[in-house]
Amino acid sequence: MTQHVDKESKKKASGSLLHIASEAVHSRIKNLKRRDHQCQAFMRKVIESGIFRTLIITTISLNAFFMVLWTSYDIRYRLFRVFEISEIIFVSICTSEFCLKVYVDPLDYWKDGYNLLDVVIIIIIFIPYLLRKIKGKHYRYLNVADGIQSLRILKLIPYSRGIRTLITAVGQTVYTVASVLTLLFILMYIFSILGFCLFGVSDKGDLDNWGNLAVAFFTLFSLATVDGWTNLQEELDNRNFLVSRIFTITFILLASFIFLNMFVGVMIMHTEDSIKKFKRELMIERHATMMEEKQVILRRQQERVSRLVQTQKSSNKSFGELVENFKKMLRHTDPMVLDDFGTSLPFIDIYLSTLDNQDITINKLQELYYEIVNVLALMLEDLPEDTSDTLDTFD
Prior knowledge:
By secondary structure, the protein is mainly alpha-helical. It has 17 helices and no strands. It is elongated and about 155 Å long. The N and C termini lie far apart (136 Å).
C-alpha cells in the first residue's frame, strides 16, 4: 500500500515538474524580445490584406479544378507539364503561407485549430513525394496517397466565415448527437436480436437478411433510412411471418420518424443558434469599424478646428469665414459625425469666443449710440433763438 502511494506521489511530482518546466520554457520564449518588429508588422499586414487572401483562395480553387482534370487520363497525358507547373506553384504558395504565419506568430500559431488543419494538409501534400522518393513509383499504396490529396480543398475553410460557423454548429452538437445515436444504437440492438430470433433461426427464415447479428444490423439500417424496405418486407411476407409487418412498422416509426428526425432537429437548432451568433458578431464588428472611422474623423476635425482657431487669432477673421473654411475641409463621409462636432471642445471654444466678440461689438455700438445722442443734444442747445422760434411757429 505504501509502495503504491509512493508511486502515485512520484508520478504527481514528476507531472508537476514537467508542467513547471514547460511553463518556464514557454515564459522564457515569450519574454524573448524580437528585434524585427517592423518586418513582423509588415508581414502581418501582408497576411491580413485582401490581396493575399484572394491569392490563396484563387490558388486553392485552381488546384481543385486541376485535380478534377487530372482524373481524366487523356487530359492528364496532354497537359502533363501544366499539371507539374501548377503543382509546384501550389506547393510553393502553401509553404510560403505557412512560413509567413509561423514567422508572424511563432507561438500563437499553434493554438488555432484551423492553423493545425493547414499543417496537416501540408503534411498530406508532401506524402506522395516522400513515398515516390523512398518506395518508388510502383508502390502499391501510392494511389491512396494521391487520393487523399482531395483534402487540399479544406484549406478554404479558414478563409470562409460561413463554413467556420457551420463547423462550430456541428461541434456544439457533438454531445447531443452522440446521445441520440446511442439511443438509436440501443434500439437497433434490441430489434436486431428480436429480428434474428423471429426471422433468422427457423428453416424457413430469411437468412440473407436476418441470418446473424451483423446482417440484421445492416437490414435495420436499411429500414431506418426507409431504403428498399418494401423489398425486405416482401421477403418476409413470402415466408408467411405473421408478426413481420408489426415489427417493420414499429421499427420504422421509432427509428426513422422519431430518432432520425430528432437528429435533424438538433442539427437545425444548433445551426440556427450559430447563425444568429455569427450575425451578432458581424454587427458588432461593423459597429466597431464605424466607431473607429468616426473617431478618426473626429480627431481630424478637431485638429483642423484647432488650426482654424489659431489662424483666426493670428489673422482676426470672422466666425463666418472660419465656418466657411471648415466646410471646405469636410469630406463626403464627415456629415455622419457633425452632430458630435457641435459638442467638441474646440467648437465650444470658438462659439464662446464669438459670443464674446459679439458682446464687445454690441457694447461699442451702444457707446456710439450714446455719443450720437449726446452730440445731437448739444447741437440742439447751440441753435440760435430765431431758429427755435421759427420751429415753434411751424409747430
